[in-house]
Structure to design on (558 residues):
């Protein structure tokens, strides 16, 4: 595949995995938690590197999942002791992220990671770091990691679709029917971490959040079905890769930046034109009501 | 009234009302619970007989909803035991149905009414399986009983408060439980819905099921419920409505002056 092809495929996979996880996060009102995890995976990556002296996919994923779960547990721990939920998230994630940034700046930084890369990602370098796979031949490592994570997330959501649905809509009923509500919460946190670390290399911590939240928030405005919302969130994420990449090429600027900006444009169009929640539709309905 | 006294009374009620053996459906012993170290339930003791329709009444903040949640392991308890059908809740979960307060869920969730009713069947469907046509038909039959089958495909955000509550009741019906806990099912619903819900609860009772309802409207207690449990952090009085729902007991539960009680208990 061409250099451009790999970049577009990588960006599309970011959109796909983030759309699936993002839909659940939005419906559970956990955008702040997603923000936290997309930052704290950094400390997981750094820790994994310090322990193994390698920046390989599996190590990073395990490190990031550990960091993500630690974030979720710490937030709960403070919250149980009377700290407000948002304050708890804010404190935990900035502190963990700060440790990650400090570590990068000292020991790891001159090897592979730097703060700029961690915050913004560098999708343009992705096609150069390749690994050999049995059937597919030479594949960029980040793309491969994203493909594995996307498949894992897709499988978890399809297999446990009704469990996700009930624990998200009515956790009390779900618990009374015997569904492990707390376990599913932490599985979602692990999925968020996995997605964040896989997307991290491509788009960085800040824009991972944009890809998690914005397409799902836009999708929410268009449909009243959970499955459709997930499909639309994925579609918006994947579609934003294309204009994102070409605008960046024309303006000679950051691909991840233009991609995240494209999701913002999709959201803006959605809130203006969506048939039920859109601003225009609501204005029009109000006018009709007044006329009647 | 002393604890022993009304425990005895409920025991009698059980023998007369319940058709089966004198095993209590629900037995609560020395239950206590706290919210961040503030005690909300203390020394709660009562038992409920089969085939009864009981309402739990008490002032705001008396811990009525918390009581339901603690019994169902949805909120941690400090002390005490709760036995369901003579065993632990975990062993008989499928025989216990719970209807949370309508406001406890996000009605902007992308789902239609049928989706929500089907959720009552998710426990029976089991892991890694998808709902089938049989489940759809069960859900639609329950919606028909609640008079909302025509709303099956309606988005839940487009339903009125009364319709939402009927959806919750239909969801409880498909669970086909033997013991139901309902948290304020009549709060903020229209008269027609209130009537439909009470018809459903009476029907459950007549089929030998046991129903426990957190209720707020003191004016309807005598008409709707055969047993009443007056509650304010602990059980103030419990027994058949006729004997238990007295001005005296109400005054002890609400701690108020008697003037408004005259309107409730003539």
């Amino acid at each position: 595949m061409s250099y451009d092809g790999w970049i577009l495929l990588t960006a599309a996979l970011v959109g796909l995995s983030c759309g699936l996880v993002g839909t659940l996060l939005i419906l559970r009102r956990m955008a702040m938690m997603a923000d936290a995890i997309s930052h704290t995976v950094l400390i997981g990556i750094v820790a994994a590197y310090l322990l193994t002296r390698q920046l390989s996919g599996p190590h990073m994923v395990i490190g990031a999942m550990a960091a993500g779960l630690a974030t979720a547990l710490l937030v709960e721990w403070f919250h149980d002791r009377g700290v407000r939920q948002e304050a708890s998230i804010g404190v935990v994630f900035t502190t963990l992220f700060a440790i990650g940034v400090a570590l990068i700046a000292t020991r790891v930084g001159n090897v592979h990671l730097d703060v700029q890369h961690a915050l913004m990602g560098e999708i343009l370098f992705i096609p150069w770091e390749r690994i050999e796979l049995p059937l597919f031949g030479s594949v960029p490592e980040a793309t491969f990691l994203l493909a594995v994570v996307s498949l894992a997330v897709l499988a978890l959501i399809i297999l446990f679709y009704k469990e996700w649905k009930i624990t998200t809509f009515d956790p009390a009923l779900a618990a009374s029917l015997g569904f492990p509500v707390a376990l599913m919460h932490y599985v979602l946190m692990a999925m968020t971490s996995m997605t964040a670390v896989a997307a991290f290399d491509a788009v960085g911590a800040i824009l991972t959040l944009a890809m998690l939240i914005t397409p799902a928030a836009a999708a929410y405005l268009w449909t009243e079905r959970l499955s459709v919302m997930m499909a639309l969130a994925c579609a918006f994420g994947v579609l934003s890769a294309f204009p994102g990449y070409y605008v960046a090429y024309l303006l000679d600027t950051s691909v991840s930046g233009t991609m995240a900006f494209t999701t913002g444009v999709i959201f803006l169009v959605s809130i203006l034109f969506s048939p039920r929640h859109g601003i225009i539709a609501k204005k029009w309905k109000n006018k009709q009501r007044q006329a009647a | 009234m002393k604890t022993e006294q009304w425990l005895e009374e409920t025991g009698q009620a059980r023998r007369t009302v319940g058709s089966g053996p004198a095993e209590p459906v629900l037995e609560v012993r020395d239950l206590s619970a706290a919210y961040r170290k503030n005690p909300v339930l203390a020394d709660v003791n009562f038992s409920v007989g089969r085939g009864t329709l009981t309402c739990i009444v008490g002032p705001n903040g008396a811990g009525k909803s918390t009581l339901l949640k603690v019994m169902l392991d949805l909120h941690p308890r400090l002390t005490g035991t709760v036995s369901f059908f003579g065993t632990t809740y975990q062993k008989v979960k499928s025989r216990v149905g719970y209807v949370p307060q309508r406001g406890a869920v996000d009605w902007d969730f992308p789902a239609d009414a049928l989706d929500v009713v089907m959720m009552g069947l998710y426990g029976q469907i089991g892991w890694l399986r998808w709902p089938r046509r049989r489940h759809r038909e069960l859900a639609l039959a329950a919606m028909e009983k609640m008079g909302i089958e025509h709303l099956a495909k309606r988005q839940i955000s487009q339903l009125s408060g009364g319709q939402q509550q009927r959806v919750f009741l239909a969801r409880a019906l498909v669970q086909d439980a033997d013991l139901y806990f309902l948290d304020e099912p009549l709060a903020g619903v229209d008269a027609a819905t209130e009537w439909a819900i009470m018809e459903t609860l009476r029907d459950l009772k007549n089929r030998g099921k046991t129903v426990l309802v957190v209720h707020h409207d003191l004016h309807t207690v005598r008409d709707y419920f055969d047993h009443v449990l007056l509650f304010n952090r602990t059980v103030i009085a419990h027994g058949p409505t006729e004997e238990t729902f007295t001005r005296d007991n109400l005054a002890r539960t609400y701690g108020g002056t008697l003037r408004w009680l005259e309107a409730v208990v003539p």
In short: Chain B has a mean pLDDT of 88. The radius of gyration of chain B is 19 Å. The CA atoms of residues 54 and 227 of chain B lie 4 Å apart.
